[in-house]
Specification:
Blueprint: H1 18-32, H2 44-51, H3 55-67, E1 71-74, E2 78-81, E3 86-88, H4 97-103, E4 108-118, H5 122-127, E5 136-145, E6 148-158, H6 175-183, E7 187-198, H7 200-207, E8 214-224, E9 228-238, E10 242-244
Parallel strand pairs: 3-10
Antiparallel strand pairs: 1-2, 4-5, 5-6, 6-9, 7-8, 8-9
Length: about 250
């Protein structure tokens, strides 16, 4: 839907800067859906004429919306409306990917990249309370939201505790649900560590981003019966598509 420039006139009597007024005008179009996701906004030169302002003013308005995550610049193509970030409660709630994404009125999808038995890894075995020679499962998956790769992760589980797990289709089944239903193992406690880093080559290729783009890297250990470690995972979230919600009470 085209931008309704005729409905807007800069207020030259107010102390509000022109760039801010233009920014709010474009924001209203994005929030109302008149500017839809992936729609390209008019070029800077066109908006200069329509608003009667300098290029610097237009650039400031656009830069502010880019910084807020509302627009994204694509080199050689233009500036486009960006899909809103998914509000993730994963830092404070244990719930399935399916549950969390559908709560955001989005469509979830999982792709299994790799699922196999691997030799012991000293650091991982220690985290899982295993002997130094016990074999592990390695489960690598990428999660998609509305068809777009949003995060990817590696999960390590003890082979000895979950015989036959390799036969389960984790593109269509929840890991936690299967652990509980098939093995009587309910993950009821998780300790997470979060840091911000560059994506790196592997994650960039899987998520369709640049290797220098910022990501959230979250490593966590899942426990059953509060104290028994049964899972260790490392997850890489796209910084431009996910934001975390944490509620703190006193």
């Amino acid at each position: 839907m085209p931008i309704d420039f005729d409905s807007f006139t800069l207020d030259r009597t107010t102390p509000l800067p022109f760039y801010y007024q233009i920014e709010q005008f474009l924001m209203e179009h994005i929030e109302s859906g008149r500017l839809s996701v992936d729609e390209c906004i008019p070029p800077e030169t066109e908006m200069m004429g329509l608003f009667g302002v300098s290029r610097a003013t237009i650039r400031q308005a656009i830069a502010n919306l880019v910084n807020q995550g509302c627009l994204v610049r694509q080199k050689g193509r233009g500036t486009f409306v960006k899909a809103p970030k998914i509000q993730s409660e994963t830092m404070q709630v244990l719930q399935s990917f399916q549950e969390e994404i559908t709560k955001n009125n989005a469509v979830p999808k999982t792709k299994v990249l790799e699922f196999r038995v691997i030799p012991a890894i000293e650091e991982i075995n220690k985290k899982l309370g295993l002997s130094e020679k016990e074999q592990l499962y390695l489960l690598r998956r990428t999660r998609y939201i509305n068809g777009e790769a949003a995060f990817t992760f590696k999960t390590y589980l003890p082979l000895s505790k979950f015989p036959g797990l390799i036969n389960i289709d984790f593109e269509n089944q929840s890991l936690y649900q299967q652990l509980e239903e098939c093995y009587g193992c309910r993950v009821n406690r998780v300790i997470r560590h979060i840091e911000v880093a560059h994506a790196g080559k592997e994650a960039a290729e899987l998520l369709g981003i640049d290797k220098k783009d910022p990501v959230f890297k979250v490593s966590f250990t899942g426990f059953s019966n509060d104290t028994e470690p049964v899972e260790y995972s490392v997850t890489t979230y796209r910084g431009d598509r996910i934001e975390f919600t944490v509620e703190v009470k006193r």
